[in-house]
C-alpha cells in the first residue's frame, strides 16, 4: 500500500471503487434528536466542533472591529464604551468559548476513547451534559452581548466590575460560571477514562502523547476551574448585595480578587495549550515516520507543566503592590515552568532527525506552531523577569505574547489537528493545495499582525486603548493589515472543509499510514469504535509494527 | 554594561529616532534596556536555532532523500542538555530581573516625594509645596523622585514608558515607585490598567526640567498652601487636635516626630510609621492601637477624601513639635488671635 | 455522577452477548467491575473539585480573620453554639444513617435501606430548618451584611446585655465581612444539602422500587460519598464560624 518514493505519505484507496463505509457513527441513527440526545463521544465531538466554530467567528469579528478602530489614532470608529465591549467580548468568547474547549472537546472527545481502545468515555451522559452547559454558557454570553454588552475586560478586575460599571456583568459572570462546569465535567470524564478504560495491554507508557497532554490539561481543568467559579460567585454577590469582600472602604481587599482570579486563569493558559501540544506530537511523529524523540520526557513534561502551572499565578500581579519577596518566589517558579515547554520543542525538532519527512498541511501547521510558540514562550520569559515585567506589563507586549502562544501556537495546533483527523472524522480528504495555501496565508498574516505589537509594547502603548498617540500609527496599520490577511487564512478552511464533505476524496482507514489505534479502524468509525476491544501488544508510534501489519494485510486479502 | 557608552548612546538614539524604541530618560532606563536586549538576543537566538533545526532536518531527511526512518528512542544526554541550558539562561534572566525590580521599587532615602491620586479618568499630582497638576507632572533632572500613589476608585496604573517605570495605583492603599529623570523633555504618561470608559483618555505629559527651571516653575505655580499647611488646617477642623495635643493627659498619642519611628502597639508588636500606616490609622484606627492608649479614636472613613488624607499625612510627616497644635487649641478655647508662627514649625523637608 | 444510574432498556441488547449483563450495565464498559470503579473514581474527582470550590471561600476567611480578628471574634460570639452543636450532631447522625444505608444496600436489605434513606433525609431537613431559624434571627438583628447592617450590638454590647468588650466603630464595621462569609459559606453548604436532599428523594423512591436491593449499589455508594463530603464541610465550618475565641467556662 505504500506509495512510490514521492513527496507525500498519503495513501488513499482506489477512488473509482472506494466508498464511505455504509455503517458508521454518522449513519447509524437518523434524525435531529439522535444527535441532540446522543451519548456517542464522536457525535458530541462534532456538535462541539460546530458550536466552537460558530463562537470563533463571533470572537474573530470582534477582533476585526478592534483592529479596524486601531487603524487611526483617534477614537473615531465607535464610542469608548463600545470599544471596551469589543475587547471584553473578544476575550471572553475566545478564551472561554473557543480556546479552552477547542482541542479537548472536539478532538479529545472524538479520539481519546479510540486511542485507548475503549468504546466510549466513562460517562457519556455527562459528556452530553458538558455540551449543553457549554451551549447555555455561550447562549448567556450572547445574551449579555445582545442586551448591551459587558465592558469589564475578560479579567473582571474589581472594584471596576463590582461597583463602577452598570453593564451586564452578572449575566456574563453566570455565563462563564456555567461554561466552567462544562470544562470541569470534560476533564473529569477524561481522567476517569484514562485511568479506568484503557484496553488490555495499554499501559500508561503505551498511550499516545495526545492522551498524556489531555490528561495533564484535565487535571488543571478539574482543580483550577472551581476556583474561578467561586470567584465569579463572589463578584456577583458583591454586585448584588454590596458586601465589601473586595471593597477597601468596607475592609475588603481588591487584591484578594486578583489572587483568586489568577489562581485559575494562569492554569487556564496551560489548559489551552497542552492539548494543542498533544496534537503536535501526533502530527510530527506521523509525518516523520518516527516515534517521538524522548517519549517519556515529553509525557512527563506535560504533567510537569500542569503541576508547576499552579504555582505561578502571581506573575500577573508583579506591579500590584505585592511583597517584593513573594514576587521573587513567583518569578523563579515562572522560569521553572518555561523549561518543560522548551524540552518539548527540542524533542519534536529531534523527532525530525533521521526521519522520513513529508510536508502535508498538518505538518505545515505543526512547523508554524513550533516557530511561533517558541517566540511566544520566550517572550513569556521576558514577562517572568521581574524588572522587565515592570516596563512591559499591561502594554501591547503582553497582547503580542499571548497571541503568539494562543493563536500562533494553540490555534495552529487546532487547525493541524482538524486537518489531520478530518479524514478519520468524515471519511473524506480535504483539498491539499488549497489547505497549504491557507496555512501559509495564516502564518504570514499572523506575523504581520502581531510582530509589530511587540515593538508597540516596548514603546509603551498600553493595552485596551481605544485611542493612542499618533507616533504609534504606522505599527498599528501594519498590524491591522496583517489581521486582514489572517482573516482570509481562517475563512479558507471553513470553505474547503465544507466543500470536502461532499466532494473530497474518499480517505479510507489510514490515509496518513499512521500508527494510532484510531487509524486501524474504518473512517468514519463505527458507533462502538471497535467490533472487538483491541489488545495493545506494541509500543506507541511503532512504525515497524505498522509495516508488518500492512504487509500481512496485503498478503492475506489476496 | 560592557558596551562603550558612546556606542550604546548611538544605538539607542538611532532606534529612538526610528520611532521603534522609547527614549532613555531616566537613570534606570539603560539598565532595563540592557536586560531587554539580552532577552531579545536570547529570543532571536532560540528561534533561529529551532528554525535552523527544522530547516536542516526537513531538507536532509525529506522523504525523497531518506525513504526509511530510523527509530530512535531518545537520548538522556540531549534531554539533560536542553533542560539545563535553557534553565541556566532563564535563571540568569531571573536574577537580573530581580535585581532590577528591587532597584525600581526600593526608593533611595533622599528621594523627594510627590503624591499621585488617580481617579476615573484623570491623574492628580500633588507636590509637597502645594502645587497641583492634572494629567501632568513636572520634575527636575538629577534628583531621585518617589511617587506615592493611591486611587480614589478603581485600579489604575501609572506608567511613564520613557522612564521604564510603572506601578499599579490601587484604592485603599498607597503604592510607590521612584525614578531619577536624566533628560530634559516631555514624555508620555499613561494609565495602564483598564479602568472604564475613558481609560485611553487617562494620559498626560511628564515634563522634565533642569533644576533651575523646576524651581522657577514651582514658584510660578504656587497657588496657595503647601500640602502640610492644608493638613494643619484639617487637623484642627476635624478635631484631631483635641486628642493628639501632646500634653501628658492627652487621650491620643503625640504625633510630633512619630513619622519614621518604630511604634509599639497594644499587642506588643512593633510597626514602622510610614505613609501607609498614617493613612490607615486615620481610616481604621482600631486596627493598630499605640501601646498605652485605648481604642477610642473614631474612624474618618467616608469623611475625608484621598487628597485630604494626603494633606494630613504630609502634615504629620513634617510635625517636629506640638507647639502649633497646642496654640490652635488655646485659640480655640480663648478669644485671642494665634501668635505669629515661629520658624521651626513650618519646615517642608521630608523626614527620612 | 449519574452515569451508573441505569435505565432498564438495555437488557434486550445484552441478550446476544454471552455473559450475563445486569440491567444497569452500560455497554461501553467491559465489566460491571470497571463500571463501578469508574463511577466511584468519578465521584471522588467531583468531590475534589468541590473542595477547590469551597477553598476559595476558606481562603478569604483565613485572610480576613487574620486582619480583623476582634471583629471576627465578636461576630462569631453572636452565633448560637448550642444550635450549631445541635446541627453538627444532626448532620453526623444523618451521615451515620447514610453509612448504614450503604451497608443495607450491599446486604440487599431493602426495607432497612429505605428506612435509612428516609432518616438521612429527615435529619437533613432538620438541619436546614435550624439554619433557616438562625438566618431569620440574623435578619431580625440587622446582621445581614449590606445597607441594613447595624453595628450597635458590637459598639455597645452592654446595651444589649452582652458581656463582651465593645469594639471601636471601624472595627465593628468589619463584622460585616464575617457575616458575609458566614452567609456565603453556610449558604453554599446549605445549597449543596438541598441538592443532596432532592437526590435523596429520588433515591428513596428508587430504593423503594427495589432498584438497589439486587447487588446494584453504585448510586447509593456514590451518593453516600457526596453526602459525607457535605458533612465534612460542615465539620470545618462549625468551629471556624461558631467557635472563635469561645471560653466555655465563662
Overview of the structural elements:
The complex is a heterotrimer of chains A (558), B (352) and C (250). Chain A has 558 residues and is mainly alpha-helical. Chain A is 67% helix and 0% strand. Chain A has a single domain (32-557), classed as Cytochrome c oxidase-like, subunit I domain (Cytochrome C Oxidase, Chain A), CATH 1.20.210.10. Chain A is built from 16 helices and no strands. In chain A, helix 2 packs antiparallel against helix 3 (80-116), helix 3 (80-116) runs parallel beside helix 6 (169-196) and helix 14 (432-459) runs antiparallel to helix 15 (473-503). The model of chain A has no long low-confidence stretch (mean pLDDT 94). Chain B is an alpha+beta fold and 352 residues long. Chain B has three domains: 5-105, Helix Hairpins; 112-221, Immunoglobulin-like (Sandwich); 227-346, Orthogonal Bundle (Cytochrome Bc1 Complex, Chain D, domain 2), CATH 1.10.760. Chain B has nine helices and twelve strands. Chain B has helices at residues 5-17, 29-60, 76-105, 211-221, 227-237, 240-243, 275-283, 306-317, 323-333, and strands at 112-119, 122-126, 132-134, 136-140, 144-151, 156-160, 165-169, 175-180, 185-191, 204-209, 262-264, 270-272. A five-stranded mixed beta sheet of chain B has the order 3-2-1-5-8, with helices on one face. A five-stranded mixed beta sheet of chain B has the order 4-10-9-6-7. A two-stranded antiparallel sheet of chain B has the order 11-12. In chain B, strand 1 (112-119) and strand 2 (122-126) form a beta hairpin. In chain B, 38% of the residues are buried. Chain C is mainly alpha-helical and 250 residues long. Chain C has a single domain (49-242), classed as Up-down Bundle (Four Helix Bundle (Hemerythrin (Met), subunit A)). Chain C has eight helices and no strands. Chain C has helices at residues 32-67, 69-76, 81-106, 110-140, 152-155, 169-173, 175-209, 218-242. The longest helix of chain C has 36 residues, at 32-67. Mean pLDDT of chain C is 88; it is low at 1-18. Chains in contact: A-B, A-C, B-C. At the A-B interface, helix 3, helix 8, helix 9, helix 10 and helix 11 of A face helix 2, helix 3, strand 7 and strand 9 of B.
Give a brief description.
With 558 residues, chain A is an all-alpha fold. Helix content of chain A is 67%, strand content 0%.
Amino acid at each position: 500500500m505504500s506509495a512510490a518514493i514521492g513527496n507525500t505519505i498519503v495513501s488513499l484507496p482506489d477512488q473509482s471503487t472506494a466508498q464511505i463505509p455504509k455503517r458508521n457513527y454518522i449513519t447509524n441513527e437518523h434524525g435531529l434528536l439522535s444527535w441532540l440526545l446522543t451519548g456517542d463521544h464522536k457525535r458530541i465531538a462534532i456538535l462541539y466542533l460546530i458550536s466552537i466554530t460558530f463562537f470563533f467567528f463571533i470572537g474573530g469579528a470582534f477582533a476585526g472591529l478592534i483592529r479596524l478602530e486601531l487603524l487611526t489614532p483617534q477614537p473615531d470608529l465607535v464610542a469608548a464604551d463600545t470599544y471596551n465591549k469589543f475587547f471584553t467580548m473578544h476575550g471572553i468568547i475566545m478564551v472561554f468559548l473557543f480556546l479552552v474547549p477547542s482541542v479537548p472537546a472536539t478532538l479529545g472527545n472524538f479520539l481519546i476513547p479510540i486511542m485507548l481502545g475503549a468504546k466510549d468515555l466513562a460517562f457519556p451522559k455527562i459528556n452530553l451534559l458538558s455540551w449543553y452547559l457549554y451551549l447555555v454558557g455561550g447562549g448567556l454570553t450572547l445574551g449579555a452581548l445582545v442586551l448591551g454588552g459587558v465592558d469589564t475586560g475578560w479579567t473582571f478586575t474589581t472594584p471596576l466590575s463590582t461597583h463602577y460599571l452598570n453593564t451586564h456583568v452578572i449575566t456574563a459572570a453566570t455565563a462563564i460560571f456555567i461554561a466552567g462546569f462544562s470544562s470541569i465535567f470534560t476533564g473529569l470524564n477524561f481522567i476517569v477514562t484514562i485511568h479506568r478504560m484503557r484496553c488490555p495491554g495499554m499501559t500508561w507508557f503505551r498511550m499516545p502523547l495526545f492522551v498524556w497532554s489531555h490528561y495533564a490539561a484535565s487535571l488543571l481543568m478539574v482543580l483550577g476551574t472551581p476556583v474561578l467559579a467561586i470567584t465569579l460567585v463572589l463578584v456577583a454577590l458583591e454586585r448584588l448585595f454590596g458586601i465589601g469582600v473586595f471593597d477597601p472602604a468596607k475592609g475588603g481587599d481588591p487584591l484578594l480578587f486578583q489572587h483568586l482570579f489568577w489562581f485559575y486563569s494562569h492554569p487556564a493558559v496551560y489548559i489551552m495549550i497542552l492539548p494543542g501540544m498533544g496534537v503536535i506530537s501526533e502530527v510530527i511523529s506521523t509525518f516523520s515516520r518516527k516515534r517521538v524523540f524522548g517519549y517519556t520526557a515529553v509525557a512527563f513534561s506535560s504533567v510537569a507543566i500542569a503541576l508547576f502551572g499552579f504555582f505561578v499565578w502571581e506573575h500577573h500581579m508583579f506591579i500590584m503592590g505585592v511583597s517584593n519577596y513573594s514576587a521573587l518566589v513567583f518569578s523563579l517558579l515562572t522560569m521553572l515552568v518555561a523549561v518543560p515547554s522548551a524540552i518539548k520543542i527540542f524533542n519534536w525538532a529531534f523527532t525530525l532527525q533521521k526521519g522520513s519527512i513529508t510536508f502535508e498541511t498538518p505538518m505545515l501547521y505543526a512547523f508554524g506552531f513550533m516557530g511561533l510558540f517558541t517566540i511566544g514562550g520566550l517572550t513569556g520569559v521576558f514577562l517572568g523577569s521581574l524588572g522587565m515585567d515592570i516596563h512591559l506589563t499591561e502594554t501591547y507586549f503582553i497582547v503580542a505574547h499571548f497571541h503568539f502562544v494562543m493563536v500562533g501556537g494553540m490555534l495552529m495546533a487546532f487547525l493541524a489537528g482538524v486537518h489531520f483527523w478530518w479524514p478519520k472524522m468524515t471519511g473524506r480528504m480535504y483539498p491539499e493545495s488549497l489547505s497549504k495555501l491557507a496555512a501559509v496565508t495564516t502564518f504570514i498574516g499572523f506575523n504581520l499582525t502581531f510582530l509589530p505589537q511587540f515593538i508597540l509594547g516596548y514603546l509603551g502603548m498600553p493595552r485596551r486603548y481605544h485611542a493612542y498617540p499618533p507616533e504609534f500609527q504606522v505599527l498599528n496599520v501594519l498590524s491591522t493589515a496583517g489581521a486582514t490577511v489572517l482573516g482570509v487564512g481562517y475563512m479558507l478552511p471553513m470553505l474547503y472543509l465544507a466543500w470536502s464533505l461532499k466532494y473530497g476524496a474518499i480517505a479510507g482507514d489510514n490515509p496518513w499510514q499512521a500508527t494510532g489505534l484510531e487509524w486501524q479502524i474504518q473512517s468514519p468509525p463505527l458507533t462502538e469504535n471497535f467490533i472487538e476491544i483491541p489488545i495493545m501488544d506494541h509500543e506507541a508510534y511503532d512504525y515497524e509494527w505498522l509495516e508488518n501489519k500492512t504487509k500481512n494485510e496485503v498478503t492475506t486479502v489476496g | 554594561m560592557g558596551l562603550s557608552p558612546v556606542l550604546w548612546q548611538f544605538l539607542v538614539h538611532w532606534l529612538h529616532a526610528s520611532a521603534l524604541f522609547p527614549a532613555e530618560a531616566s537613570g534606570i532606563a539603560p539598565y532595563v534596556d540592557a536586560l531587554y536586549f539580552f532577552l531579545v538576543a536570547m529570543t532571536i537566538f532560540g528561534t533561529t536555532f529551532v528554525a535552523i533545526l527544522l530547516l536542516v532536518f526537513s531538507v536532509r531527511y525529506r522523504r525523497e532523500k531518506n525513504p526509511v526512518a530510523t527509530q530512535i528512542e531518545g537520548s538522556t544526554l540531549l534531554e539533560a542538555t536542553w533542560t539545563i541550558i535553557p534553565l541556566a539562561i532563564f535563571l540568569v534572566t531571573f536574577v537580573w530581573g530581580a535585581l532590577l525590580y528591587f532597584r525600581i521599587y526600593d526608593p533611595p532615602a533622599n528621594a523627594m516625594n510627590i503624591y499621585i491620586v488617580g481617579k476615573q479618568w484623570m491623574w492628580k499630582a500633588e507636590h509637597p509645596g502645594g502645587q497641583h497638576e492634572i494629567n501632568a507632572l513636572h520634575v527636575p533632572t538629577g534628583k531621585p523622585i518617589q511617587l506615592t500613589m493611591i486611587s480614589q476608585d478603581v485600579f489604575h496604573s501609572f506608567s511613564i514608558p520613557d522612564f521604564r517605570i510603572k506601578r499599579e495605583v490601587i484604592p485603599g492603599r498607597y503604592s510607590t515607585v521612584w525614578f531619577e529623570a536624566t533628560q530634559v523633555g516631555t514624555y508620555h504618561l499613561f494609565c495602564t490598567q483598564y479602568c472604564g470608559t475613558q481609560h485611553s483618555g487617562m494620559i498626560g505629559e511628564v515634563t522634565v526640567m533642569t533644576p533651575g527651571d523646576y524651581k522657577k516653575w514651582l514658584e510660578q505655580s504656587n497657588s496657595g498652601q503647601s500640602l502640610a499647611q492644608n493638613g494643619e488646617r484639617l487637623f484642627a477642623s476635624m478635631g484631631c487636635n483635641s486628642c493628639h495635643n501632646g500634653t501628658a493627659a492627652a487621650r491620643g498619642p503625640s504625633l510630633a516626630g512619630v513619622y519614621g519611628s518604630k511604634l509599639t502597639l497594644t499587642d506588643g508588636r512593633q510597626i514602622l510609621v510610614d505613609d501607609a500606616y498614617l493613612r490607615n490609622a486615620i481610616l481604621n484606627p482600631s486596627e493598630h492601637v499605640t501601646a498605652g492608649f485605648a481604642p477610642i479614636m473614631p474612624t474618618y472613613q467616608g469623611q475625608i477624601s484621598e487628597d485630604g488624607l494626603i494633606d494630613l499625612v504630609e502634615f504629620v510627616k513634617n510635625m517636629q513639635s506640638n507647639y502649633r497644635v497646642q496654640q490652635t487649641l488655646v485659640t480655640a478655647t480663648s478669644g485671642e488671635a494665634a501668635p505669629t508662627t515661629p520658624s521651626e514649625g513650618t519646615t517642608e523637608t521630608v523626614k527620612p | 455522577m449519574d452515569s451508573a444510574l441505569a435505565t432498564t432498556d438495555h437488557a434486550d441488547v445484552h441478550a446476544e452477548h454471552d455473559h450475563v449483563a445486569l440491567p444497569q450495565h452500560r455497554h461501553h464498559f467491559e465489566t460491571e467491575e470497571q463500571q463501578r470503579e469508574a463511577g466511584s473514581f468519578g465521584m471522588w474527582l467531583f468531590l475534589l473539585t468541590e473542595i477547590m470550590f469551597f477553598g476559595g471561600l476558606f481562603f478569604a476567611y483565613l485572610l480576613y480573620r487574620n486582619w480583623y480578628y476582634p471583629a471576627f471574634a465578636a461576630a462569631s460570639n453572636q452565633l448560637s453554639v448550642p444550635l450549631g452543636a445541635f446541627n453538627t450532631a444532626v448532620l453526623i447522625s444523618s451521615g451515620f444513617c447514610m453509612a448504614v444505608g450503604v451497608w443495607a444496600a450491599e446486604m440487599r436489605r431493602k426495607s432497612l435501606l429505605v428506612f435509612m434513606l428516609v432518616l438521612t433525609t429527615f435529619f437533613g431537613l432538620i438541619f436546614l430548618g435550624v439554619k433557616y431559624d438562625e438566618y431569620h434571627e440574623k435578619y431580625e438583628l440587622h446582621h445581614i451584611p449590606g445597607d441594613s447592617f447595624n453595628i450597635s450590638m458590637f459598639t455597645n454590647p452592654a446595651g444589649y446585655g452582652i458581656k463582651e468588650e465593645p469594639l471601636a466603630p471601624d472595627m465593628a464595621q468589619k463584622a460585616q465581612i464575617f457575616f458575609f462569609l458566614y452567609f456565603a459559606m453556610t449558604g453554599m453548604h446549605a445549597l449543596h444539602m438541598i441538592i443532596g436532599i432532592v437526590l435523596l428523594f429520588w433515591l428513596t423512591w428508587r430504593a423503594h422500587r427495589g432498584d438497589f436491593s439486587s447487588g446494584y449499589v453504585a448510586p447509593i455508594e456514590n451518593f453516600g460519598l457526596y453526602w459525607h463530603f457535605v458533612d465534612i464541610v460542615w465539620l470545618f465550618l462549625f468551629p471556624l464560624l461558631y467557635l472563635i475565641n469561645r471560653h466555655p467556662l465563662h
